[in-house]
């Protein structure tokens, strides 16, 4: 797949392969960490006490280690992104264009979270944020938000664009690696939809006034 799909998501070249290899490495490491933390076999983990194990309509699904790693990474990535979009909505420094974009991203990220958690429940796997406190690529941490708040007013918009672009681009790469290495058809389909959404969202981001000045 040659070309560029949204700014910052290169495919078919050395940079794209490097990003994809990095995403695959993250998923492998996450899969190992999940196995150590939860002690689960393939698709056999039990949900935490007090946490719903499944929804009434969730069909059982067998999740591979890569599937679980993908889901357990995307849940905190989306959670942190939603917190960031909420911050942008409430910040007086946010431009109308960025506020509108944050609203659209909020809708898609919330829908994805519901699907991701439904898959975990269907696979009888407990949700674990094993990346808490880590500086993961594409993860919008409290530190990034603190940096924004401390930035000069003129730099706020470009920095916000950079943070959003990094999140969208990295999650698209992670979703692509799940499609190539995942075991569950349902999880791979979710990843395909997520990648499409991210590429569309990158196009929307590029349309925000001043976005070009925030290019890395």
Automatic annotation (TrEMBL):
Keywords tagged on the record: Membrane, Transmembrane, Transmembrane helix
Pfam families noted in UniProt: DUF305 (PF03713)
UniProt cross-references to InterPro entries, sorted A to Z: DUF305_CopM-like, Ferritin-like
Annotated ranges, domain DUF305: 67-205
Transmembrane residue ranges: 20-41
Protein known as: DUF305 domain-containing protein
């Amino acid at each position: 797949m040659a070309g560029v799909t949204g700014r910052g998501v290169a495919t078919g070249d050395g940079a794209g392969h490097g990003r994809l290899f990095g995403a695959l490495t993250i998923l492998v490491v996450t899969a190992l960490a999940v196995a150590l933390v939860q002690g689960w076999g393939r698709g056999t983990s039990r949900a935490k006490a007090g946490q719903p194990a499944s929804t009434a309509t969730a069909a059982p699904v067998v999740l591979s280690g890569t599937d679980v790693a993908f889901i357990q990474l995307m849940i905190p990535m989306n959670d942190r992104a939603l917190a960031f979009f909420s911050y942008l909505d409430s910040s007086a420094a946010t431009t109308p264009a960025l506020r509108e974009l944050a609203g659209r991203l909020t809708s898609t990220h919330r829908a994805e979270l519901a699907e991701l958690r439904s898959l975990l429940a269907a696979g009888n796997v407990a949700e674990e944020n094993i990346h808490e406190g880590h500086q993961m690529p594409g993860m919008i941490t409290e530190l990034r938000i603190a940096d924004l708040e401390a930035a000069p007013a003129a730099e706020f918009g470009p920095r916000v664009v950079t943070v959003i672009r990094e999140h969208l681009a990295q999650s698209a790469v992670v979703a692509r690696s799940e499609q190539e290495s995942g075991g569950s058809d349902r999880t791979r389909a979710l990843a395909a939809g997520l990648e499409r959404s991210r590429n569309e969202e990158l196009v929307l981001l590029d349309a925000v006034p001043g976005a070009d000045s925030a290019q890395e």
